[in-house]
Specification:
The complex is a heterodimer.
Chain A: H1 3-17, H2 20-23, H3 25-46, E1 48-50, E2 62-71, E3 75-77, E4 83-85, H4 88-93, E5 99-110, E6 117-130, H5 145-150, E7 162-164, E8 167-171, E9 173-177, E10 183-189, E11 192-203, E12 206-214, E13 220-223, E14 231-232, H6 233-239, H7 245-252, H8 256-267, H9 274-285, H10 291-305, H11 317-339, E15 354-357, H12 359-387, H13 394-397, H14 400-413, E16 424-426, H15 432-439, E17 441-443, H16 453-456, E18 480-482, H17 496-505
Parallel strand pairs in A: 9-17
Antiparallel strand pairs in A: 1-2, 2-5, 3-4, 5-6, 7-8, 8-16, 9-15, 10-11, 11-12, 12-13, 13-14, 17-18
Helix pairs in contact in A: 3-12, 6-9, 6-11, 7-8, 9-10, 12-14
Chain B: H1 2-18, E1 32-35, E2 38-41, E3 47-50, H2 98-113, H3 119-137, H4 143-157, H5 166-180, H6 187-193, H7 198-212, H8 225-231, H9 236-251, H10 260-274, H11 283-290, H12 294-311
Antiparallel strand pairs in B: 1-2, 2-3
Helix pairs in contact in B: 3-4, 3-5, 4-5, 5-7, 9-10, 10-11, 10-12, 11-12
Classes of the chains: A alpha+beta, B mainly alpha.
Chain lengths: ~525, ~300
């Protein structure tokens, strides 16, 4: 091989990877995705703000419908009331926030179901969103080097950070365990070794840990939020609609040894039919209550807290339940295979089992809680205005400082929603390399005060993704990492339905009705 | 106000007489001046001396967390309890179950009920939240909230709210604060975003003005210029020319008794016509921005023109 040529080519590639656009690309790609669709998704999830108006006799109910959300580019409103475009350097020098007004369409709807009329419908300013320098809503996007110099900006600056009260804050990329994946592992309970299959089920900011354990006497038990303790696997699967013994066994596995284990479980079963199973579940989740309430509560818990990630818009509740049953069967299979030593425990440090939360994902979490807070405030303002017999209008019930404060404060202090701290950090301006390194840094949420030797070790799957040598010494060693030069960060797909259709067209069967069967064991 | 000025004055004199040597810059022998906590040279900008005490957060944390602060947020007049409220929170790390959880939920409810010691405090909270809302909607600087709230509280103490609306007073205090701080907003602008209607605002403002003796004079039309200029998308030079026109009219005593909003809009209209780099605007656009009739614009414009002719 011609090594000289090889070297020049390598150098060219290397240079491309070190271009200004590439260095903080993961940050603004993620933030742009948040601006273009993430924000709208959050608003669509919320969809309406319900009020308590109409609970009283002879009063018409009122609710607010949320529509399109829109962000403009950063601007500053002076005390004298004039408004101008804001550039990053001015924000830094004047100690102000580089943020853009956010507008949302809101309509106040009055009346009962079927006889509804819109009282007021306007696009109103709901607050200000801090804008990432270099993102598509940034005022310097698309500027040439000379134009950047003219407005006092450094043409070599990679961007990828926010400016809040004049200080530059970067959101640390955090490395989390992959959600919605089955992880099988060993655990000990009362001194015995047991097998556990875990899933962090995540949907729309709600995260629920579902555990499936094979206890020492070979029985399977499932635990999930809102149910204290654990529930017999067979009971839960029957409650979800898998009734007959044969169905349950075959959905778990066709392996004779696993079938034997499964039959042991079925012999010990407490219930035989779906109704009995839901009753049994009702007794667990609402013991001491009336029977009707128990049933209602049991159904609610199944639909709300059990494996929420399997819910999808446009899929029947019935199908979702069957999917949940199939998913639980996969978890059971993982436990049994582990018990029979057909597979090894999943490696949590394997990079296939990790997901990175970049600025856009973090901002989405923040925007969701900020919007909820705003919704609560709108509800309160509406109820007050109604109580005092005021005209209900969109412009008088929205307090724009609520959202602004909820968005700015976490970025300024680093205290994120969900109790995490240190999420945003002051950009390290010691030198240019310091900035680049800081923007490409990622942090493990594990505590630095505990050993966690395996988590700190260099894992083979980090090849090409994480720099093997750049990590701090001391307590953070191996927990704070840096991207490799040629790292490419993939994003989640925009439209999951389309992906599924594509998979189906390639011959994958059972979508979306039988989602569970398409899953491979969680170790890639 | 007067006393503090005197104190500062005497301390400066002591500096000048007692420490004559140190009052000269060691680098360029320029005069020294105290600004905030720093003693700096007026000529070369050298910082000769600073406050020796570091008033920033602690250098190490005492409770093991990364937070070095030992205090909370500063006291504020814009909360009914000066921002010292306590809340029983929802700690996620310690999971409460069963009776304990119910007990804490009851405590939380009772605690939130006990937040207000009186009906007046409850009204005050309602007024303050309305003030915050109006200030945010008008994108006013944050300190206006504080001042408006103080004014609201004094109105309450002077027993002005009896028989008048809380929302009216909230809107009126914001309006009054803007007027006294030379960042005037028109009544229409405030009413557009307030819960209160115009009659309530005016009744409240009259009461404030009469009983609390707010220091306001006639509104200077120049205060409206930057806002109207940016709303009409006019350039800086047009705004500058318009402010000259306002000054000319004021000097000639021709703005007394005129609607300041109309004068501001008319001056911008005239300036946009005169400044060559700018496209002229229509009288209708100017009138709409100032919320006056085109006739008002025309009459002020003619006054201005006559004034210009006389001076030439």
């Amino acid at each position: 091989m011609d090594t000289a040529l090889d070297r020049t080519i390598r150098r060219d590639i290397s240079r491309e990877y070190f271009s200004r656009e590439r260095l903080a690309e993961h940050h603004y790609r993620s933030f742009n995705a948040f601006l273009t669709r993430g924000m709208q998704e959050v608003v669509d999830e919320k969809a309406t703000i319900d009020t308590d108006i109409g609970d009283k006799e002879g009063e018409e109910p009122v609710h607010v419908e949320l529509g399109d959300v829109r962000v403009v580019t950063p601007r500053v409103r002076e005390a004298d009331g004039s408004e101008e475009l804001l550039y990053p350097q001015e924000a830094r020098l004047r100690n102000i926030t580089y943020s853009a007004p956010v507008f949302m369409e809101m309509s106040i709807v009055k009346g009962e179901e079927g006889d509804q009329r819109v009282v007021d419908s306007t696009e109103t300013k709901i607050g200000r969103m801090p804008i990432m320098v270099g993102s598509e809503k940034c005022n310097i996007a698309g500027f040439t080097d000379q134009e950047l110099i003219d407005i006092g900006e450094d043409p070599a600056d990679p961007g990828g950070y926010f400016i809040v009260n004049g200080s530059e804050r970067v959101l640390m990329t955090s490395e989390d365990l992959a959600p919605n994946k089955i992880l099988a592992e060993y655990d000990t309970k009362y001194g015995d070794e047991i097998q556990v299959a875990k899933t962090f089920s995540q949907r729309r900011g709600y995260r629920a840990l579902v555990l499936c354990e094979r206890t020492r006497n070979g029985l399977l038990e499932v635990s999930f939020p809102s149910v204290s303790g654990s529930i017999n696997f067979v009971t839960l699967v029957r409650a979800l609609g898998l009734e007959s013994d044969e169905e349950i066994v075959h959905k778990v596995s066709n392996d004779p040894e696993v079938v034997k284990y499964m039959l042991e479980n079925l012999e010990e079963a407490e219930v035989q039919t779906e109704e009995e199973a839901i009753e049994a579940l009702g007794k667990r989740v609402a013991s001491g209550q009336g029977k009707n309430y128990q049933l209602k509560r049991a159904n609610y818990v199944i639909d709300r807290y059990l494996l929420p990630h399997l819910h999808e818009d446009g899929v029947e509740e019935e199908d979702v339940r069957i999917n949940k049953a199939h998913y639980l069967c996969r978890m059971a299979e993982a436990c049994f295979e582990l018990a029979l030593q057909r597979r090894e425990a999943d490696d949590k440090d394997h990079y296939a089992n990790k997901r990175l939360k970049v600025s856009g994902d973090l901002m989405k979490d923040l925007f969701r809680t900020a919007l909820n807070k705003l919704a609560r405030d709108v509800k309160y303002q509406l109820e007050r205005a109604n109580m005092r017999n005021r005209n209900l209008s969109v412009s008088t019930v929205v307090r724009s400082d609520v959202l602004t404060e909820r968005l700015e404060h976490p970025i300024a202090t680093g205290n994120w929603v969900g109790g995490r701290s240190g999420v945003s950090q002051l950009v390290d301006r010691t030198d240019f390399m310091g900035v680049l390194s800081h923007l490409r840094r990622l942090r493990s949420p594990l505590s630095r005060s505990q050993p966690h030797f395996e988590a700190r070790d260099l894992h083979a799957t980090q090849w090409g993704r994480i720099c093997p040598s750049e990590t701090p010494e001391g307590p953070n060693c191996g927990l704070v990492k840096n991207f490799a030069q040629a790292m490419e960060l993939s994003q989640n797909v925009e439209d999951e339905q389309e992906l599924k259709r594509e998979l189906a067209s390639m011959g994958v069967q059972g979508i979306p009705g039988l989602e569970g069967t398409t899953r491979t064991p969680a170790d890639d | 106000m007067h006393i503090s000025y005197q104190l500062q004055h005497t301390s400066l004199e002591i500096d000048m007489t007692g420490f004559e040597k140190s009052a000269i810059c060691p680098e360029c022998e320029g005069r020294l001046r105290t600004i905030d906590t720093e003693l700096i040279c007026e000529e070369c900008g050298l910082v000769v001396d600073t406050d020796a005490i570091d008033r920033g957060p602690e250098w190490r944390s005492f409770d093991g967390s990364s937070n070095r602060k030992r205090t909370g947020a500063p006291l504020t007049r814009s909360r009914h309890d000066r921002g010292l409220s306590t809340e029983i929170g929802y700690e996620t790390s310690l999971r409460l179950t069963g009776r304990k959880r119910q007990q804490v939920a009851r405590m939380r409810r009772e605690h939130s009920r006990a937040r207000f010691e009186s009906k007046a405090a409850r009204n005050q909270m309602a007024g303050f939240s309305e003030i915050r809302r109006i200030v945010a909607r008008l994108s006013l600087p944050v300190w206006t909230t504080e001042r408006s709230c103080v004014l609201f509280e004094s109105a309450q103490n002077a027993d002005l709210l009896r028989g008048r609306s809380i929302e009216g007073f909230a809107a009126a205090t914001v309006y009054a604060t803007c007027r006294t701080s030379a960042i005037s907003r028109t009544i229409d602008e405030v009413v557009a975003v307030a819960h209160a209607d115009e009659a309530e605002l005016k009744a409240a403002y009259r009461a404030l003005n009469r009983e609390l003796e707010i220091q306001t004079g006639p509104i200077d039309p120049a205060e409206y210029l930057p806002r109207y200029a940016s709303r009409l998308e006019l350039a800086r030079c047009v705004e500058h020319r318009a402010s000259q026109y306002v000054a000319d009219l004021r000097d000639a005593g021709l703005i007394d008794g005129k609607n300041p909003s109309g004068v501001a809009a008319a001056c911008l209209y005239a300036a946009a016509m005169r400044v060559e780099e700018s496209d002229p605007i229509t009288q209708a656009a100017a009138a709409e921005t100032g919320n006056v009739s085109p006739v008002t614009i025309r009459s002020t414009f003619e006054t201005l023109r006559d004034l210009k002719c006389e001076s030439h």
